[in-house]
Amino acid sequence: MKQLDSFEELLPVIKTGSRIVMHSAAAEPLWLGEQMAQWGLDLRDLEVYMLSPMKAVPFAALAPEHLKIHAWVPGHGLRGVSGGNSVEYYRFPLSEIPGLYLSGSEIADILFLHLSLPDKYGRFSLGVSVDYMPAVLATHPLVVAEVDPNMPFTVGDTYVTEDQIDYWFSTDEGPLIVPSPSIDEGERRIAQMVADLISDGAILQTGVGSIPDAMLQELASNPPRDLGIHTGIFTDGVVELAHTGNVTNSTKPGSSHKMVTAMAWGSPELYKYLDGNDDVEFKACSYTHDRKILSAMEHLHAVNSALQIDLLGRVNAEWLKGRIISAPGGLPDFASAAHAASKGLSIIALRATSRDGLTSNITPTFSVDVPVTLAPDNVDFVVTEFGTADLRGLSSSGWAKELIKVAHPDFRSELARSIA
Predict the structure, then answer these.
(1) CA distance 385 to 99
(2) Architecture of 2-170 per CATH?
(3) pLDDT tens digit string along 193-206?
């Protein structure tokens, strides 16, 4: 483990054509990314792999001529560079990504990490993003780390030892601050109806965005008893709910009654809450998203947003107006497991229309270019601001009729004619 003072010292070990994995989401090593942009013309034909970058990617301007970006989940940081050959997008559920590295299907030559300071045992922490990093580490790439006193030291599968790190730089940027999304009246109505579906003992997974955040706020104001948290992303809303004292994790199988997540993003207060907090375990997504593990949680309730749903019950959470917005992420893993769990629920929440009200988000059928993120047989409830559609036990014609009931009134006649 050798400390370096300048990125230029690292250039000799970054070979032409190297495959570089960047630490994910709010743990993205921003300084290393900025240095890659600055020195990019000296680093030829790199392949850079990212998961949910939250901030504009500084080296994206070098793609595709000088490097190639591969995105497991685009995130906000890549939405503006989604055209042409600049970014290659993958559609793997998060549960499958670690196995791609462990099997050798994907190879990492270099891993850029953003770590906490070491603890008294000399262990560094992956901080607020564990996700598929342990699998990449297990393949023994060259590891370059930003070591940062402002990165929370989190607990679980987060530990990185000194002998796993080849080079390191000292930074103090901390994890990326991600403001909570604004919530409008329609989203608040949706959240209230979703919260009404959450029962005592539910083990919650929540997706990201304004509706899941609003639902967590609703639950915090009148929480069911003995809730559990097992999710892909830990946000400020989860902390607010935990502070009610009603998150006991007592209905989880086994003896570990902890809150579990693969990553976190949010406010400085959230990061302070997570620092050294052994009530929250960060696990690799090979665990947090494993469908066998999830299906064993008989009370699992998965609450996720979507962009569209068609009358066949198919869910699109990735593609809108010809643009890639997201990737399957954890949605297929959690929704299918929650649907299969004996007392579980798979809930999809979405606005009935586009924000301008001109387009229905409930559509007769998807065009061939729209990806199906989730099959209809893995959805129990669909909630819009106009009501809750219970799809359990229905035929495909029954799904259509229920979905029309929660569509915007201006579009119901048109939707009904499409199935007549």
Answers:
(1) 39
(2) 3-Layer(aba) Sandwich (3.40)
(3) 999 999 999 999 99
